[in-house]
Amino acid sequence: MENVTPLGGDVYEIDTRLAGYAGITAGYAILGDRPCLVETGTSTSAPVVRDALASLGVGAGDLATVVVTHIHLDHAGGVGDISAMFPAAEIVVHEKGARHLADPSRLMSSARMVWGDRLDTLFGMLKPTDAARIRALGDTGAIDLGNGRQLTSHYSPGHAKHHVGLVDSLTGDLYVGDAAGVYIPDTGDVRPSTPPPDFDLETALASIALFEALGPQRLLFSHYGPVDEVGSILERSAEELLIWVDLAKQAKGEQLDLDHAVAMVDQRTRDRYARPAPGDKAAEHIEMLSGTEPNLAGIMHWLDRPEA
C-alpha cells in the first residue's frame, strides 16, 4: 500500500491520513510473534490503519498489542475503533490516560470546546474501550513483542502528563510521540509542541534529556517519520523550546494579547523554519494542529502558573 513504508527491523510506518491528508500523523507496526501497533491515529483514520495492517498480513485476530504514547486524539482517537477491529489486542497507555480511554466523555467534551465543528472532520469521536482490555503503565514498563524483543516505556511528560516514550530493544528505535516536538521531513525542521494545559518547560526539557540518555539509534516521530540524526534533532528540540519560551515571556511583559503575541512570535521565528509552499494543505494542517497559536497558548498558560 502506498501509505505503508518499511523501515527495517520488521517496523513499518503507516501514514494514518489524518483528515485525508498525507504526511501529518504516523502510526507504526512492529511485526513478529506478537504484532504491535504504536499510535492509532484518529477515529476517522481507523479504517486506513486496519487496511494497512491487513496489507502486512495482520488480520483481526493477529494484533497482540496497541500502545499509544499519549491520549491526544491525533494519536489515540482511534483506540476504540481499533480495539473493536482487533479484539485480541491489549491496549497499553500510561496510567494517567487509561480512564479516558475507558470513558472518553470528559476528553471529548474538552476537545469539542477547543475544536468546535472541526472536531468531527479532523478527529471523529474516540469510542470507549473495555477497561478489562486496558493495561495502565507506570513511569516505566515493558511490552512483550515476542522472542525476547520488547518495548520499554519511559514516562516523559511536559507535552502531556500522560505521555510516554517507547524504546524497541531490537532496533534501538525511540517512539517520541510529541515530547520532542513536530518534525517536518521535507525541511528537517523541528518545531515545539506545547499546547495547554500540561506544558511545563522544566519537565519538557527533562523529557528530552531522558530521550538522549536512553541512547536511541533512531527517533520515530508521530509527526512525522524516522530521524537518524538523534543528537542534533534532540538538541534543536530543546533549543526551540527555550526560544519560544523567551519570546512568550517578552510578549507577556509587553502585555500583548494572544493574537498580537502570535504575530510577534511568527515574525521573530520566520527565519528559523522553511515556509510551506502556497496551497500546501498538509503543511496547513500541521500548522493548525501544532501551530504558533496553540503552542503559544500552552506556554502562556504555563507562565501564568506560580511555579513558572
TrEMBL record:
Keywords: Hydrolase. It comes from the Bacteria. It holds the Pfam family Lactamase_B. SUPFAM superfamilies: Metallo-hydrolase/oxidoreductase. CDD domains: ST1585-like_MBL-fold (cd07726). Residues 24-223 form the Metallo-beta-lactamase domain. GO terms for molecular function: hydrolase activity. The keyword Hydrolase applies. PANTHER family: METALLO BETA-LACTAMASE SUPERFAMILY LIPOPROTEIN, METALLO-BETA-LACTAMASE DOMAIN-CONTAINING. This is MBL fold metallo-hydrolase. The lineage of its organism: Bacteria, Bacillati, Actinomycetota, Actinomycetes, Streptosporangiales.
